Predict the 3D structure of the following.
Amino acid sequence: MPCEGENRPPLSPYNPSPSDEAIVGATTVTLRWDSYDPDGDTMTYDVYLDTNVNPTTKVSTNQTENTLIRSNLSYDTTYYWKVVAKDNYGGVTKGPVWKFHNQIT
């Protein structure tokens, strides 16, 4: 790793699945996202998911995978979620808030 220059934080997480504002018809959902670190650093993710427009419930901490399975979701409910990407040199980038609506289809 080069010594010169400062650490660059990860890019904001993007390409969510379910896509933003998607309608989902299942009590188990696999959240997925893409992320990238311009320095090639090892990254971990904190995932927040709840029914608040600005989700504050951390459902996963320091995970290395860019997927997370959540089950026991309620129908007729809108869920909001976001991912915070962190590199191993202290760089932190909060992703946008995404939402999906869970309803019986």
Q: What stands out?
A: The domain at 14-102 is CATH 2.60.40.10 (Immunoglobulin-like). The mean pLDDT is 95. The beta strands are 14-17, 22-24, 29-34, 43-50, 58-63, 67-70, 77-87, 92-94, 98-102. The chain has one domain: 14-102.
